[in-house]
UniProtKB/TrEMBL annotation:
The lineage of its organism: Bacteria, Bacillati, Actinomycetota, Actinomycetes, Propionibacteriales. Keywords: ATP-binding, Nucleotide-binding. PANTHER family: ABC TRANSPORTER G FAMILY MEMBER 20 ISOFORM X1, ATP-BINDING CASSETTE, SUB-FAMILY H, MEMBER 1. GO terms for molecular function: ATP binding. The keyword ATP-binding applies. This is ABC transporter ATP-binding protein. Residues 6-228 form the ABC transporter domain. Pfam families: ABC_tran (PF00005). The keyword Nucleotide-binding applies. PROSITE patterns: ABC_TRANSPORTER_1 (PS00211), ABC_TRANSPORTER_2 (PS50893). It comes from the Bacteria.
Length: 238
């Protein structure tokens, strides 16, 4: 049986007086897990809850066997937010050296992270002059500095062209093959086929959790987008 990386029981999150997530239960295992759903459905709130930076109204969230956000997870969980976490006026290496010092990581961690995201040839370039895909990889390198066992990525491919998105997903799988569990959110349904496991989310609820093939078989749909629409229609008709 696959060991769980994330365990969530009865998660309830209220933001601005609005219930964003109500009583969610979820178990996530290793590999590359995609969290897909439309913008505003609660994906970022769920990811923030998993890394321990979201105030929750109720429920238990455990990552790698520890309560989310606990001090013991600081070096074990990497997190890349939607907004940029790097400095445009610094080079790739200067950014990573800065964050390594903040995180208390040795200089060798910088080299490992640069190699992991395939930016060795760009290490001396100013981040503001990089392409969108390269810039996303710098942010990913920062998240990898601690050599995390769990990597949480909030829409890292947003705004990128199909080729750059393809390259980043290939990178996610290489990272997962190295033993790091990867949880990545997206609102682009055609990215669903690139995941080992899928979580389809709508209005704070998980509509389906299975492999892409399993979700398509369950709904009789040709692709995951059609499967998602089928699940939504079924839910609305209930």
């Amino acid at each position: 049986m696959v060991n769980s990386v994330i365990e969530i029981v009865g998660l309830r999150v209220v933001r601005g007086g609005r219930v964003v997530i109500a009583g969610l239960d979820l178990t996530v295992g290793p590999g590359v897990t995609g969290l897909l759903g439309p913008s505003g459905c609660g994906k970022s709130t769920l990811l923030r809850s998993i890394v321990g930076v979201q105030r929750v109204a109720a429920g238990d969230v455990t990552a790698l066997g520890r309560p989310a956000g606990s001090a013991a997870l600081r070096d074990r969980v990497g997190y890349q937010t939607q907004s940029s976490s790097v400095y445009d006026d610094l080079t790739v290496e200067e950014n990573l050296r800065f964050f390594a010092r903040v995180l208390g990581r040795p200089a060798a961690a910088v080299e490992t992270a640069v190699e992991a995201v395939d930016l060795v040839s760009h290490r001396d370039q100013v981040v503001g002059r990089l392409s969108g895909g390269q810039r996303s990889r710098v942010g990913l390198a920062v998240a990898l500095l601690g050599e995390p066992e769990l990597l949480v990525l909030d829409e890292p491919t947003v705004g990128l062209d199909p080729v750059l998105r393809r390259d980043l997903w290939a990178l996610f799988h290489r990272i997962a093959e190295g033993g790091t569990a990867v949880l990545v959110s997206s609102h682009v349904m055609d990215e669903a086929e690139r995941c080992d496991q899928l979580l389809l989310m709508r209005e704070g609820r998980i509509l389906a959790h299975d492999t892409p093939a399993g979700i398509k078989e369950r709904t009789g749909a040709r692709d995951v987008e059609a499967a998602f629409l089928s699940l939504v229609q079924g839910e609305d008709a209930a």
